[in-house]
Every structure is written in C-alpha cells, then in structure tokens.
C-alpha cells in the first residue's frame, strides 16, 4: 500500500473522500504517494479556518512571526537533499537542480523572517498646521495561493512566506501533478509554531479546489502562477467581486545573440535557457534571435553542443535533462514539433522520444532553424525542451523581433558591446533583462514578474511582495 497524505485544515490533518497517485515521470512504476483530493466543502472549511485565525494573527507580535518563518527555513535547508530527492521524483527535475530549488525555498523563508522585522511606514507633515500623517501597511486578509507544477517547492515558498510574514492567513492549493513538496512544506509549518488556521493546505484539481478558492467571498486576494487562460479567468472572477489578484502566466522569452558575442558564452547560456529544467520554466528562452554575421556558426555550435546533453532519470548522476512532467505535456511538446516541421522550420536536432532504462516521459532537446516570426512555434509557449532560431540582419531588427510578442517576462542579450547592452536593457519590453546570462535564473531577494501578457498585478519576491500582501492605511493625528 502506498502512503496516504491528507489535507491540512485548521491545524489538523484531514482525510479526503478520494486520493490521487503522484507518479514519478522518470519511472512510471514509481508511485511517490497518494495525495488527498479536496472537495469544495473542505476548501470552504479551510477558508473559514483562515478567516477565524486572521484577527489574532494579523495583530500578533512580529518576533513570533519571524521565529516561526525562520524555523521553517532552517528545517528546509537542513533537509535539502531529502526534499531534493522528493522534488526530482515527482517533477522530473534533475537532482542537482532539485536540491538547488529546495535551497532557494529555505532561503526564501529565512529572508521573510527578516522582513517581519523590517516593515516600515512614514510620518509626514500635513498641509494643515498641527496635524501629522502616518502611512502604514496592514495585512490584506485571507489569501488563496494557487501554484504550478514546474517549481513545486520554490513557488509555494515565495507565495506562502511573504503572505505569513505580513500577517495574512493562507489557503494553499498546489498543482495536482506535484503535491508532494507542498505537503512537505505544510508538515514543516505544522510544527513551526503557527496558530491553527493561519496556514491551510487543500490539494486537488484546479477545476474543484482552485475554483472554490477563487469564488469564495471570504478570500481577500488570490495569487496565481500558471497558464494564461486560467489566469485571465481568475482575474475576471476576482475583479468582479473586488478581490485583489496577482498573476504570473506565460512567456515566449527572446535570447538575442549579436555578431560580436562570444560564441561559447552564447551557446552555453542558450542551452541553459532553452533546455535545462527540460525547458519547463516560464523564463526559458525558446526564441533564439541571432544576427546574420554569427548565425551559421551559432547554429553549428548549438547542434554540436546539444549532442553532449544527457537525457535520463532525474535521480541518476550525469543526467543533464530529466523527463517532461506528464503524458499530456509530452504529447503537447511532440505536437508542436510536428507543427514546426509542417510550417517549414528546419529540424536541426532532437524531436524524438528517448528510451531509458525506466519507462518515462523522455524527450530529446529539440532545436529548429530557418524560423520566421509568424510561425506558431515562434509565437506560442510550448513549455518543453523545444527552441527555435530566428535569423535577423542586425541589432535593430533583433530588438524589434524580441519585442514582437504578447508576452514580456524575461529577455536576454549576448554581446560584448556596452552600447547595445545598455540600449537593450532600456528598450526590451520585459520585466527582467539578462545580459550575457541565461534568461532563467532569478535571485530570491529581488522582484520577479513581467509585462504585457506575462503578468498582472504587483511583483513577487523581495520587499516588493508587500505590494500584494498588504494594504496601505493613511492616519491623521491632530
């Protein structure tokens, strides 16, 4: 019998009517565990528990909050290898990447333990003599957090930690594909000193659990990371009832390679951006925009470098890229590869399934060349290890091509020219710009977010998280 993992509601572990198998995408015979599938009634119970806990928690001492968050962060860091194995098993990220993600999650909790003690306000003079003005921040209330499958511990951490640090109560719904890491966080939180109801975990489908969170009038704000379609639906529902909403959605991130770029640097950062984490990052660069003078060399060098990439079981030493996360994701990736071929793109390498010792969702990293901006593979987010190369004449065309997308999360440039680097930093229509670095990879203490169709609402991470998780109060004193 597989171990069963329950929901966490009002300080208690609560069984569900049904459970779902959490399957290892590297080895389909490996069941990580059976995880509860909450129904709408359990979601409402979790929200009611959070609402009941909010008055005391929102006015509690900041040292107690800080201590509890620091305890969570310390335990995550102490167990990083164990939790890294769990992450690699349920999501398919290679073990070194998985341990790195767990480390990031621990550091996030410890960062917000400090933020509890760094909350500040303002005291201003009024235009009226003898009157002063105080500007302070207060907790928003009950927050619904809906997280994706591609970063199963880091993204829950960067939503849960600031929500709790600023005095909110939380209802977390992790992606149904990867509930294990979120359950591990919940179990650690359950022993860290938080009062009952402050943190709640309800696992299950977005159609049931996510919808119940979004529609409940007792939820004051919803922070969501996931697909564009779902995000827009959540925004419409939240705005209709006056709830605050924060969305992180898609990306079709450009990586510009100029003629003057160092070729080895350009190839390495492109491989890292496009294919590592199996390309399953919203910051991955799936559009490689290359100027004419270096184009042919770059294509040849990429093809050669990709031959040395090892696809395999996420837990095995030497694996560079693990499997994609699920059968559905594999089918989507393969469908886009066929679309690219039909559109006339040239398949440079990859494009086929990979056989390994264990039955899993393995796909060779795939590179297309001779692509144009109007191709679907150039416009639509694939979310897999598939990238395409678009040839342009010069920097001006490269910049225009980089910005010719409905998304605006991350944008990179590889160049030795300070002139072009500075111009690109200012004119790339993205929330994050990388110069001579992969487009994926953001520190935990700085703001994360994009523009256009990639993001909606205030930024996540760092001190900027307070913009979503708090509300501003202006007080006059006579």
Automatic annotation (TrEMBL):
The active site is at residue 248. The keyword Transit peptide does not apply. It comes from the Bacteria. Residues 13-474 form the Aldehyde dehydrogenase domain. Keywords: Oxidoreductase. InterPro entries: Ald_DH/histidinol_DH (IPR016161), Ald_DH_C (IPR016163), Ald_DH_CS_CYS (IPR016160), Ald_DH_CS_GLU (IPR029510), Ald_DH_N (IPR016162), Aldehyde_DH_dom (IPR015590). The keyword Magnesium does not apply. SUPFAM superfamilies: ALDH-like. It holds the Pfam family Aldedh. PROSITE patterns: ALDEHYDE_DEHYDR_CYS, ALDEHYDE_DEHYDR_GLU. Belongs to the aldehyde dehydrogenase family. This is Aldehyde dehydrogenase (NAD+). It comes from Pseudomonas borbori.
């Amino acid at each position: 019998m597989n171990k069963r993992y329950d929901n966490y509601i009002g300080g208690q572990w609560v069984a569900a009517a049904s459970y779902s198998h959490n399957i290892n995408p590297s080895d389909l015979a490996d069941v990580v565990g059976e995880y509860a599938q909450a129904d709408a009634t359990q979601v409402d119970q979790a929200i009611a528990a959070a609402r009941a806990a909010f008055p005391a928690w929102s006015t509690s001492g900041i040292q107690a909050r800080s201590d509890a968050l620091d305890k969570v962060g310390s335990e995550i860091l102490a167990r990083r290898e164990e939790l890294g194995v769990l992450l690699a098993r349920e999501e398919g990220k290679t073990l070194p990447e998985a341990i790195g993600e767990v480390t990031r999650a621990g550091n996030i909790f410890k960062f917000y333990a400090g933020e509890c003690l760094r909350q500040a306000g303002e005291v201003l003079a009024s235009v009226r003599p003898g009157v002063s003005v105080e500007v302070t921040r207060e907790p928003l209330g009950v927050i619904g957090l809906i997280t994706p499958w591609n970063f199963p511990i880091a993204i829950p951490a960067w939503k849960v930690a600031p929500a709790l640090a600023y005095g909110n109560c939380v209802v977390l719904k992790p992606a149904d594909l990867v509930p294990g890491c979120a359950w591990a966080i919940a179990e650690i939180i359950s022993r860290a000193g938080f009062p009952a109801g402050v943190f709640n975990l309800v696992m299950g489908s977005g159609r049931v659990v996510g919808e119940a969170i979004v529609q409940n009038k007792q939820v004051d704000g919803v922070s969501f990371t996931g697909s564009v379609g779902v995000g827009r639906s959540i925004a419409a529902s939240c705005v209709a009832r006056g709830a605050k909403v924060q969305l992180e959605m898609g990306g079709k991130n450009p990586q510009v390679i100029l003629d003057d770029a160092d070729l080895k640097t350009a190839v390495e950062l492109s491989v890292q951006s496009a294919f590592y984490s199996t390309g399953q990052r919203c910051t991955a660069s799936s559009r490689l925009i290359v100027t004419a003078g270096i184009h042919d060399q770059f294509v040849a060098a990429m093809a050669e470098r990709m031959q040395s990439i090892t696809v395999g079981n996420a837990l095995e030493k030497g694996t560079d890229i693990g499997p994609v996360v699920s059968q559905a994701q594999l089918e989507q990736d393969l469908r886009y590869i066929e679309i690219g071929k039909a559109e006339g793109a040239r398949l440079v390498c990859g494009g086929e399934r990979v056989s390994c010792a264990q039955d899993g969702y393995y796909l060779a990293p795939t590179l297309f060349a001779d692509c144009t901006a109007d191709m679907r593979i150039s416009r639509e987010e694939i979310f897999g290890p598939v990238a395409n190369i678009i040839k342009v004449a010069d920097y001006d065309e490269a910049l225009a091509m980089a910005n010719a997308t409905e998304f605006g999360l991350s944008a990179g440039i590889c160049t030795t020219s300070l002139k072009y680097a500075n111009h690109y930093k200012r004119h790339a229509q993205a929330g994050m710009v990388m110069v001579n670095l992969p487009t994926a990879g953001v520190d935990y203490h700085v703001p994360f977010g994009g523009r256009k169709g990639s993001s909606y609402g205030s930024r996540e991470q760092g001190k900027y998280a307070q913009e979503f998780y708090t509300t501003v109060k202006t007080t006059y004193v006579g």
